[in-house]
Amino acid sequence: MPRTVRGKRTAVQLVMAAVVLALLPATWVHASTHDRVTSVADAPSAPVAVVFGAGLRASGEPSAWLAHRLDAAAELFHSGRVRALLVTGDNSTEEYNEPDAMREYLMGLGVPAERIVADYAGFNTWNSCARAADVFGVTRALLVSQEFHIPRALALCRAAGIDAYGVGVSEHLSGLRVFSSLREIAGSIPAVWDAAFTPEPRFAGPRETSLQEILATVGGEDDMSGS
Q: What is the C-alpha to C-alpha distance for residues 188 and 176, in angstroms, rounded to an integer?
């Protein structure tokens, strides 16, 4: 610490300014999405639900948090709020395949395989959102994740051009939940950077029409926008 009164005052001011600047991205995330977070019971209808990966157990099955997301997505499907599911996660190695594990779990909950589309390059939230829009043609969707993560997912998917509502899955209070909630504050900083300066996903890939084909087959809204 500086020895003079002026020096100490300046140091305190710099620390306070740094804290304010660090919290600005988190403030933007929550302010821009607070009216778009809902529950499974109150969620509006949308053509598709986007379910974000959240890790696998050593056995290759979905982690507890990922299973809770998939439970919510299956409930949205069976209640008729969505007609297709896009599961997006990490498949960076042959041994680690989140999307296929998510598909298998959903099928075990009675969701038909032909209503599930997998994105194997959803390496983080921004890539999942950008690929949903650019590769899979999603323009309107429900997003499914834990309550602490859904504001960032919403902010990024809306920045990618998706008209989205977030379905927040509740979790019991625990040390891991508190840590994850605090980590979201730090995660909002690269989120703002990605939304502003990284318009393309890491792996753009060719355009996928599988979601549009599903929606055309099952009837009702015949495109992602619902027009």
A: 18
Name the CA radius of gyration of the chain, rounded. 19
Tens-level pLDDT at each residue, the chain (227 residues): 666 766 656 666 566 655 544 555 555 556 666 678 899 999 999 999 999 999 999 999 999 999 999 999 999 999 999 999 999 999 988 889 999 999 999 999 999 999 999 999 999 898 999 999 999 999 999 999 998 899 889 989 998 999 999 999 986 556 655 555 556 555 666 666 666 666 666 677 789 999 999 999 987 544 554 43
Cα 47 vs. chain centroid, distance in angstroms?
16
| Residue showing tokens 């959803």 | 122
Residue 119's closest CA among 168, 166, 61, 50?
Answer: 50
CB 153 within 8 A of CB 129: yes
